[in-house]
């Protein structure tokens, strides 16, 4: 073969390789039409998203204090009025997670702060981080209590007479860690700042012991995480200790998201029975008419909101701590706001609405102080009339009233009732651990090809032992311990039965 033919062959083989590469590159890359179609689709979808997506309202820094600035304002207020106000910071921790709660105590004369003849009121604000307006209301109430600000349409003489009889503890920002997250840009955050295995946040108003852990059909784990157990969070531990030591006559948990005056219960759609409960409802209806212009929903939280809430603070205060008057006040809500535009939904965004909310609800709280003391006076006067030979204090009478209420609901001892919810929960967890250990034991036996019962037992005896074990499991199931972990009770027992049957067959 001459040199010219060799060159022609090399050239032809090279051309074939280039053609193959060209064909491969064309076949491996998407056609131009597909690329253009995807680009157009992405542009169209992206454009629609931009058109549809709401513009989220940022925090109005001209209206709202930062958490640090608000606490500094309160600290300065207490410093200027040491004769009336006292401030303390209570800390707690759990598994490395730390929380602090500031408590401000008001008494006209600080020397009388431990006077048990006075009515005691406990107010909590900012339990959910995204509800900034509630802490602003706390600041205004403290300013009025100090005397630096005044209520325009309230008789000062009547107000002073009422305040003379009160000791008020104010928690301006119960969920400080959650509030910090909101200020960092997570405007929809309502939970605390706990981070465990990338799962963050517990709803502090689902972490109390009354009906704790129960989940409705519309349960949202992002919104309503109840924690690993009742009082698993430092914030709720601190609030429970505060309640036990202070023994309030009145409790108010302040929220936003709607306008409402709620009384117990949250975990069921009914209110408590009895004349006292009826009078409390009448008081709330009067408050609604005078200060809410009849806009507020009045009734039980569970019966009025449209969903049941389990493990709430107000239900605990009423049912376990035996606070005679336990309320949840919802002070603002924008129904027109998108569910994702959380700051606008839960907080006023303009100066006019902001001032109206603060002014109206400040007046409502002080009117509630006045009405509540009259209501408690009526209870005290009944005690005096029924015990003419001796003077009975309001605390002594209320203790009798609460014990009567306790027995009416079938609980003979108040002390036992205080711990029953916690005992039931931990007992269920203990039984759950026992059942899981039994399951692991059976699985281990199955893998090692050993019989469930001793070789010394005959088949009939083995079956009898197994039936007794399965009967025990079936009796345990109604306690709900398997339901806690999502295990189907009957399937669980059947699985163990099958394991037992296989092991016995293998050893016959």
From TrEMBL:
GO terms for biological process: proteolysis. CDD domains: M14-CPA-like (cd06227). Its cofactor is Zn(2+). InterPro entries: At5g42320_M14_CPD, Peptidase_M14. The active site is at 330 (proton donor/acceptor). SUPFAM superfamilies: Zn-dependent exopeptidases (SSF53187). GO terms for cellular component: extracellular space. Residues 63-350 form the Peptidase M14 domain. Transmembrane segments: none annotated. It comes from the Eukaryota. GO terms for molecular function: metallocarboxypeptidase activity; zinc ion binding. Belongs to the peptidase M14 family. This is Peptidase M14 domain-containing protein.
